[in-house]
Amino acid sequence: MPELSVAVAARLASTIAAPLDPASADAPLILHWPGRRLLVQRGDTELAVRDLDEGGTETHFPAPWPRGYGSVTVSPTGDVAVFAGVHALRAVDSTGAVRWEIRHGCWSSAVCTEAHASFSEYADDYHHGQADTGSAAFSSDGKLLWAHIRSYEGRDITEEWLILDPVDGTVLTRAATMTVGSGSFHFPHPDPAFMGLTVGEGEEDSPVLWGHWDGAKLTVQRFDEQVLLAVSPSGEHFLTTDPGQWALYLHRAEDGMELRRLNAEDAVPPPSSEDDRVFWDYEAAFPYEDTAVVGTEYYAEVPRHWLVHPRTMALGGRIAYPFPVSGSPRSAGQGIWYTVSKDQTTLHLWRLQDAR
Question: pTM for the complete prediction?
Fold first, then answer.
């Protein structure tokens, strides 16, 4: 059994109040690209976006459908929101005006081949209300939009990864994902030509797709039974775990090669003698080139966060916070990570104590 590691002090960089009432909104999160960070919170009727780098400007986008019907992303400049819904991708500005819309196959588990034109047509349908979700994300320069959608070929479900021009929604290229996902998450790369995608397919399957667009051809690498956690600040590496949460894997972004791994049971002691094994969390932060912050027991009253050295995949110690935190550590850009308070009203941004 591994011994307890030394404590590594975290310093509070800032505290940010969530813009929306958690009773009618999802937990706030931070979208980030090189030199740009946006706080985003999805409510039942609106999307709140706060610029964390340019004067704290806050923008509210009217939502085209309730928050339980899909996901949403925002452009790096914060002027366009793209709602990835059950039946459509819809880009809107802060007034709610539709810039463009692309209809696609239904994310409902029940077979639905209708091209619904509006949310009102399926607002009261149980299966649409319990639908799976796709996702979308902007490239680091904001000039591309990557989107995971579902379509139909006859009565067969297919899923695709699209690259679009975010100005008018023109589809530049597409690739079959060969997945049947219940949800997906994008991970922008500092180089706008790259993007990562995790597609959740259940406990046993969860492939990572690593895409590269050279302006003419989309190349997609697939890593079965992997969950993408974070991309390094330079973009040279990315970190994954497996659906069983047994190990962390460091990959080279250029070609996806696994360089090394860190098994949880070899590195982290169980939280108590009654626990059989340790699980890495499905979320993590990669704030420094030589440092990742990865959690265990995100569900616990006091989760444990660990400093990991990716170059050696060695445990550097347990993160010591000045007050208790909740949930998993999440990336917030270079040199910083964040946690969300248990009541979802506050975000805390953190740095290592000895980091500038």
Answer: 0.95
* Terminal alpha carbon distance of the chain: 35
CB 16 within 8 A of CB 355: no
| 14: Cβ contacts below 8 Å, ≥ 6 apart | 348, 349
Q: Please tell me whether residue 345 adopts helix, strand or coil conformation.
A: coil
DSSP string of 254-266, one letter each residue: TT--EEEEEEHHH
Give the pairing type, strands 7-17 and 346-352.
antiparallel
Lookup result for tokens 């590195």? 267
């190349």: which residue's tokens?
Answer: 219
Report the C-alpha gap between 98 and 279 in whole angstroms.
43
User: How far is the C-alpha of 126 from the C-alpha of 142, rounded, in Å?
Assistant: 36
Tokens (6 digits) for 261: 């791994």
Q: Are 98 and 161 in contact (CB under 8 A)?
A: no
Q: Going by C-beta distance under 8 Å and a sequence separation of 6 or more, which residues neighbour residue 50? A: 16, 19, 38, 39, 56, 57, 58, 59
Task: Give the pLDDT score at 353.
Answer: 86
CA distances to 124, 126, 181, 293 from 213, rounded to whole Å, are: 40, 38, 23, 29
CB atoms within 10 A of CB 97: 9
- Give residue for tokens 């791994």: 261
Average pLDDT rounded to a whole number, residues 99-121: 87
SS3 67: coil
Q: Which long-range contacts (CB under 8 A, 24 or more apart) does 55-60 make?
A: 58/19, 59/94, 60/94
Per-residue pLDDT reduced to its tens digit, 213-236: 999 999 999 999 999 999 999 999
